[in-house]
Specification:
alpha+beta, 3-stranded antiparallel beta sheet, 2 helices, 5 strands, 28% strand, globular
Length: 78
């Protein structure tokens, strides 16, 4: 099984919604719309896809007691 990708940074829009993620080893950010299928295949470490009925589909890190790997924290939305 190939090594899972790791998100090391994120960007958010003015509403605080995560729009892009940066994978370890990449120089460019990846739009969330492209990262969601990668996460659905289980290829992103510590991350899953959330499909709420009243909001748009998004990525979420798995809870582990740390905030440094939280997408909102990475995007500066603390």
């Amino acid at each position: 099984m190939p090594k899972k990708r790791k998100i090391v940074n994120a960007r958010a829009d003015s509403d605080g919604d995560i729009t892009h993620v940066l994978f370890e080893g990449n120089q460019r950010f990846t739009p969330v719309e492209q990262a969601i299928p990668i996460a659905e295949r289980g290829e992103i470490e510590n991350t899953h896809v959330v499909r709420p009925s009243n909001a748009k589909t998004h990525l979420r890190t798995n809870p582990d007691g740390r905030t440094s790997n939280n997408l909102d924290d990475m995007a500066g939305d603390k």
